[in-house]
Design goal:
The protein has 510 residues and is α/β, with parallel strands linked by helices. The protein contains 19 helices and 16 strands. Strands 5-6-7-2-1-8-9-12-13 form a 9-stranded mixed sheet. Helix 18 links the parallel strand 14 and strand 15. Helix 7 crosses helix 8 and helix 8 crosses helix 9. The longest helix has 27 residues. It is globular and about 70 Å long. The two termini are 36 Å apart.
Length: 510
């Protein structure tokens, strides 16, 4: 029988930022980069695992005690944080890019700060794609993900969401991120029709109808999942507009208790918050009215209004005469507060959505990162030694001491990080970089507006920088349906393979 304490450590994703737990799990027999520790434990040879446990029993039990104290210190969730993707760890491939990374960092920070928050999302059975390069062209590969193999536990709850006139069943999985639970809905239920089983197959795949169905499961099913597991949040936070249908579900609940629609709207606004991320129209979900209208008919009937009213709530005049269903517009209409992800972005958002009266009050809350996830082990040790408690939460009293750290200590920490990067690039591509020379990194999605190929527009300038010894490392994926983004990636890949790159300009796949 597998050791319960070890499974508890491997299942809770606090190991993704707790260095001691990570080091312990990385020493498991069979552990390898990219393998989830739960899968390693489940498939380990029993004799080898028992021998490993025999040598580390005290450490395993001590770390479990610490984990339980963290989990037990946080109250029942008062905030439900909805997102279509959560980037918690590379071993849990349920994310695509920055939106998911931010969401994952929110869950981790909530755990560290003791905030009573629950994440709500979808469980994708094939996650986001693995990237391979065929020459300079991106190819996508999808791997099947079993929930139990990545630390998910079955809550025993299911919810029903009516889509296209059919009652669709979604299973509710729970994953723990420190003290923060994450509820993920999964439509891979045998009793569903085949098209419904595939709703949660892949992240950001399929046509517009598939995307709409995913967002209905996320928003409507997410609210019902919370109810099914006995969580009654005070606040609903929409991380982008993908979960906007939760607002209609909250209205339906209110009206069903006898409230008027006007009173229901005010009650929903009082407990909902919308974070908008994307500064360009291309990044906002829109659906043809003809596609959404059939799904809204039952909502209109239950709310005592007409479908056109619901469609008008989700209309952004600047979208043009076709007036598509705009998820951000609906979120602005029914959420009591809205924020951008920086002070500058809040101003851009107010301009982008200027035709929506309620968007005039968008505030700016600058995104941070979860320090223990993104600061290297060497720098963490340096800060723990010299800055003391609170540096990872940005406390001014801790950072006031940073001037006491010598330059050589910083150089040594950065040198170690560059060494790991050089090793990774060598393992993945065969290119040998110089760990003592400047390395400039670009790791983002290959979307055209992120302008990955901008430095190729000045070849003379790039040649001078390469002559001076600088090195460039690129990484990122283009959306499978984004031909223009793939073309940018191919341009970077082609230059990396050319003689002009001089072995100092490299694209690392996947």
């Amino acid at each position: 029988m597998t050791d319960a304490n070890l499974i508890e450590l491997a299942t809770n994703h606090r190991w993704s930022w707790d260095l001691r737990t990570r080091a312990l799990l990385d020493s498991l027999p069979g552990a390898a980069p990219g393998r989830h520790p739960v899968d390693v434990v489940r498939t380990a040879e029993p004799g080898a695992l028992q021998a490993w446990l025999g040598e580390r029993r005290v450490e395993v039990d001590a770390l479990v005690d610490e984990l339980r104290s963290v989990v037990d210190s946080v109250a029942s969730p008062a905030v439900a944080y909805f997102a279509p993707e959560f980037g918690v760890a590379a071993e849990l491939p349920q994310y695509s890019g920055g939106l998911g990374i931010l969401a994952g960092d929110h869950l981790k920070s909530a755990s560290d700060l003791g905030l009573p928050l629950v994440g709500v999302g979808l469980f994708y059975r094939e996650g986001f794609f693995r990237q391979e390069l065929d020459g300079t062209n991106q190819r996508e590969r999808y791997d099947t993900i079993e929930p139990e193999a990545v630390g998910a536990t079955d809550t025993g709850a299911t919810v029903t969401v009516t889509i296209a006139g059919v009652d669709i069943i979604a299973r509710v999985w729970r994953q723990m991120v420190g003290a923060t639970p994450m509820l993920l809905l999964d439509t891979a239920v045998d009793t569903n029709p085949s098209w419904a089983v595939s709703i949660t197959d892949r992240l950001y795949s399929g046509d517009r109808e598939h995307r709409l169905r995913q967002e209905l499961v996320l928003g409507v099913g997410g609210v019902r999942a919370l109810r099914a597991v006995g969580v009654d949040p005070e606040v609903f936070h929409l991380n982008e507009g993908h979960a906007c249908f939760l607002l209609l579900e909250l209205l339906r609940e209110r009206v069903a208790t006898g409230a008027t629609l006007a009173d229901a709207i005010e009650a929903v606004r009082a407990r909902s918050l919308f974070t908008t991320h994307t500064p360009v129209p291309a990044g906002i979900d829109r659906f043809d009215r003809s596609l959404v209208r059939p799904e809204l008919e039952s909502w209109a009937e239950q709310l005592g209004t007409d479908v056109d009213t619901l469609l008008d709530w989700a209309t952004l005049p600047s979208d043009g005469p076709d007036r598509p269903f705009n998820t951000a517009a609906l979120a602005f209409e029914l959420c009591g507060m809205a924020n951008g992800v920086s002070q500058l972005h809040s101003g851009v958002s107010r301009e982008l959505f200027s035709t929506l009266p309620r968007a005039a009050t968008v505030t700016g809350i600058t995104n941070g990162v979860h320090a223990r996830t993104w600061v290297s082990p060497e720098l963490q040790a340096l800060y723990d030694q010299h800055l003391g408690h609170g540096w990872d939460q940005g406390r001014a009293v801790a950072w006031a001491k940073v001037g006491n750290i010598g330059a050589e200590a910083f150089s040594a920490a950065r040198r170690a990080g560059r060494g790991r990067l050089v090793d990774l690039v060598s393992d993945r591509t065969g290119v040998e970089l110089d760990p003592d020379a400047c390395i400039i990194g670009f790791a983002r999605r290959f979307a055209t507006y992120k302008r990955a190929a901008l430095l190729l527009r000045d070849r003379d300038g790039l040649e001078r920088v390469l002559d001076a010894g600088a090195q460039f490392v690129f990484a990122g994926k283009a959306h499978p349906a984004d031909g223009e983004g793939k073309a940018v990636l191919a341009e970077i890949a082609a230059f990396a393979e050319s003689d002009a790159a001089r072995g100092r300009f490299v694209l690392v796949p996947d």
